[in-house]
């Protein structure tokens, strides 16, 4: 249990460093997009992935991810696997 708590604590520190980096822009989902977000969350079975994909599509950008399989066919989605 202690190891898990330490790992979570370490990850929290990394997230804090990332969020404070000047190149990072933290974004939130637009409440007006709830229907699109709900549909994507149903299809992808993950709200976090749905929010990332919705933002990428709305901004003509890409999702950079270590879990590309979550998004389905990479030829049809703006997903870049890392």
Can you offer a commentary on this structure?
The chain has helices at residues 2-20, 34-44, 47-58, and strands at 63-65, 79-81. The protein is mainly α and 82 residues long. The protein has a domain at 25-81. A two-stranded parallel ribbon has the order 1-2. Helix 2 packs across helix 3 (47-58). The protein is globular. The N and C termini lie far apart (30 Å).
Short description:
The chain has 82 residues and is mainly alpha-helical. The protein contains three helices and two strands.
Tell me the layout of helices and strands.
Blueprint: H1 2-20, H2 34-44, H3 47-58, E1 63-65, E2 79-81
Helix pairs in contact: 2-3
Name a few traits of the molecule.
82 residues, mainly alpha, globular
Cα Rg: 15 Å
Helix proportion: 40-55%
Q: What strand order characterises the main sheet?
A: 1-2
Order of helices and strands: HHHEE
Main sheet: strands, sense, barrel:
2 strands, parallel
Number of strands: 2
The termini sit apart by: 30 Å
Strand proportion, as a percent range, falls in 5-15%
> Count of helices?
3
């Amino acid at each position: 249990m202690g190891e898990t708590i330490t790992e979570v604590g370490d990850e929290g520190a990394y997230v804090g460093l990332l969020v404070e980096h000047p190149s990072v822009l933290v974004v939130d989902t637009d409440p007006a997009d709830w229907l699109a977000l709900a549909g994507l969350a149903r299809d992808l079975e993950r709200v976090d992935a749905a929010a990332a994909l919705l933002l990428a599509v709305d901004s003509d950008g890409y999702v950079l991810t270590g879990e590309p399989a979550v998004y389905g066919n990479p030829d049809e989605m703006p997903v870049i696997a890392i």
